[in-house]
Amino acid sequence: MSAREVMERLADVIDGHRWDELPGLLDPAFTCTYVHTGETYGADAWVRLNAEYPGFQNLRLEDCVADGERAAGRAHVTGMSDGVVQHFEVATFITARDGVIVKMTEVWTDVDQVAPEGTRPS
Questions:
Q1: Per-domain boundaries in the chain
Q2: What is the 3-state secondary structure (H, E, C) of the chain?
């Protein structure tokens, strides 16, 4: 699988809540770094985090660009918290070799943030 195909498969597996398929997309030496929190996860911990994340509903891959063994994707994620649907955007950057992800970096943000006054386009 190409890096693009791996990214698309990753999104499909997560969106489908098919957690048992997730380890097969990850190299044994896989690491994922969350830039926004400074956390780094190995394969088992990252699969567990996704499978057990409270309120997760879906992930829709909105954009993907790839070159060689690298791919970058932007996804829209929804989850439920206290009966309210929450919306997030995530940028995911992967390095894939032999059809599995070796390294991943993610940056998450919620979408209801408001830009500071004076910075919005007029």
A1: 3-110
A2: CCHHHHHHHHHHHHHCCCHHHHHHHEEEEEEEEECCCCEEEEHHHHHHHHHHCCCEEEEEEEEEEEECCEEEEEEEEEEEECCEEEEEEEEEEEEEECCEEEEEEEEEEECCCCCCCCCCCC
**What is the architecture, at CATH level 2, of domain 3-110?**
Roll (3.10)
pLDDT tens track for 25-56: 999 999 999 998 999 999 999 999 999 999 99
What pLDDT sits at residue 111?
Answer: 72
**What percentage of the chain reaches a pLDDT higher than 70?**
90
pTM given for the model: 0.89
Degrees to nearest 5, angle at CA 96 with 99 and 16: 65
